[in-house]
Amino acid sequence: SQKIEQNSEALNIQEGKTATLTCNYTNYSPAYLQWYRQDPGRGPVFLLLIRENEKEKRKERLKVTFDTTLKQSLFHITASQPADSATYLCALDPGDSSYKLIFGSGTRLLVRP
Amino acid sequence: GAVVSQHPSWVICKSGTSVKIECRSLDFQATTMFWYRQFPKQSLMLMATSNEGSKATYEQGVEKDKFLINHASLTLSTLTVTSAHPEDSSFYICSARVHRAIQTYEQYFGPGTRLTVT
Question: What are the counts of helices (DSSP H) followed by strands (DSSP E) for chain B?
Answer without folding.
Answer: 0, 11
